[in-house]
Amino acid sequence: MNAHSFDPVAAVLLIPIGSAILLALLPGYRLTARLNVVASLATFLSAISLFVIERPQPGPYVLVDDLNIVFIVLNTFVGFTTSIFSASYIAHELETGRLTPVYLRFYHAMYQTMMFGMNLAFVSNNIGLMWVAVEIATLTTVLMVGIYRTHAALEAAWKYFILGSVGIAFALFGTILVYMAARPVVGEGQDGMVWTVLIQHAANFDPALLNVAFIFLFLGYGTKVGLAPLHAWLPDAHAEGPTPISAVLSGLLLNVALYALLRFKILLAANPGALAPGPLMVTIGLISVVFAAFMLYRRRDIKRLFAYSSIEHMGIIIFAFGMGGPLANFAGLLHMVMHSLTKSAIFYAVGHISQVKGTQRISRIRGLTVTHPALGWGLVTGVIAIAGLPPLGIFMSEFLVVSSTFARQPLLAIVLVFGLLLAFGALTLRLTSVAFGAPRGSAAPTQASYVPMFAHLSLVLIAGIYLPAPFVVWFQHVAQLLG
Amino acid sequence: MQMHSLYFDVSHTLAGGLVLISFMMLYQDRLYSLLNVFALHALVLALSVAWQAFIQNAPHLYVTAAIALIFKAIVIPVALHRIVKQLGIHRDIESAVGIGPTMLAGMGLVALSMVLMLRVTAEADPLAREDLAFALSVVLLGLLVMVTRRNAVSQVVGFMSLENGLVLAATGAKGMPLVVEISVAFSILIAFIVIGIFLFRIRERFDSVDVSALDDYRGERR
Fold first, then answer.
1. What was the ipTM of the complex prediction?
2. What is the mean pLDDT of the segment spanning A122-141?
């Protein structure tokens, strides 16, 4: 295959779906786990090649622009590292008998189908297709959350399913309304759902209809982002599924819904008569941050703890995009990337920890840095990063969010800082008990794969100390696009 | 003009009929009768979609109508009937809220969607306008069914009636692309629930499909 006939967009879609079919058919754990890694790597490399190869022209279904390239590359990268983590995690689950070989085949096939759904959502230029893709990604994660088939896992899957479906139904209603708003201007048929066409004509749409559409879309996709009043599914789904799935849920799936919201926010911003989406996003973002920060104190389960921390960070990101403007958008984008990398690294550590200790209860895990230094210090680094301490990347993005807010709306910044400090307190409280002190629980050695965790953490560290100039320029450009 | 008012009246009647049947769902207190009412709901939806296909001259919508008729009016209700029978749960539904307040809430929701949709779509053509207002009523009433029931079967029925409202909205939006694909995607979603999670797992593990029984297993109360 030479460079001219190679189509990276087709590759990021066809590799996952092709390997999903293959993985469903092939027996044998070692082979399929490796194949999963290889397929994820191939998808990641194709995504990288989007930077080099000339982009396809936006068609009725597919669009590659400066905004979604960031999401696709991040998505496939974390998908790749998670597949490495998943290989060692799943080996342990097979040994302990929590998963049988048949379920494992199902698991791998679903993993790749989910990657397909997420990539499709990112590259789609059609708001109907995007909706279908988000639905595919949701369905596959529902099935994977319930894969252990315990009471708790089934309850989590059921709750996720019901809330996710209602969210998805609202998103579809919003999508229909956008089409209704576009129809008098763009005309009937295909064009009324193509995003690049919509954005050109958005200024002439009926503002009232567009407003109602955005409310539905915000409710619908906001449920999937896990924003505060609509978050009920998120902690359960994170806690009860396999840990690799918690990592992709927090690191990637929330971003998919966020991306959908951003697309519609740009659409709304292009219409002068429509309501400004900013205040709505800022309010919900702040509610999420403060609510999640309080909830962090009451957690007894280590995966739930970090699930609530994801709600908090999604709140920060939505807040930043809601504030808008080049600086806040830049900070929001950076924060999203940093959060994805850090949170998935934390879940890699937590996955191995809960396997070796045989529990997810925080009170039964003590002195990790003594018994398992690599895991323990990995977790410490991850939590320091997620709590927003320098010199790691999240400190920088949070600092940008807070300082740009102080310059414009000091009162909002005070609420935000209050939430951040609360969350910081809760995380350090839990961290000290888990990582230090007299060891409790099994001290057996683990066969953990440390590479993905430390790769993510070192990226976050590098970003915190020095952001390469091309990266900054790119993000500034995308921040401009977001308005 | 005469012809057009006939077009309008028929689709108006069918869409209004859907809202009425949604109300009927609110007060069914037995699972079997709830399933029967749902089958009627899907039948009226199929008629409404077929009528839209006829007046819009859009033959692909007949596919959506056929899916609604075969899958949602026949296959799913029959399958759920059998599940209910096998599980032995044809006793009364305990609805979380009484019938009176539920009906009042339903009326409030319909009024809300009328006020909202008719106001914001003032410039759209009257057919699409009223269709959209009815569709939102059906969606909200479906949500109300889901909220007021504790039993998992009736929650699924509520979700399916909500989805019928979305199909009504999508077919009413003239010339909307991907309608068939979306209705297929939704059917797959429903088939997944009914077959997958439900039949195998919840039954196997719980011996009861009362969702409130699941609440006892919250991770943090262990």
1. 0.86
2. 90
